[in-house]
Amino acid sequence: MSRQSNAPKNVTWIICLVLYVVALLAHFGIVHIAANIATWSWIVGYALLLLAVKVRGL
Hints:
- By secondary structure, this protein is an all-alpha fold.
- Helices cover 66% and strands 0% of the residues.
- The longest helix has 20 residues, at 35-54.
């Protein structure tokens, strides 16, 4: 039997990680970017990760 994985591809996972790190660094004031960019960074990253788990090949 072959097991099917829901895991996103590495590229997708890395993009989500980068978006989250940007939001985290902005939150703690390490990098100075607009607050709306920081907020949308983690929202888009999380949404992409959720979508990648459901859509095969993403």
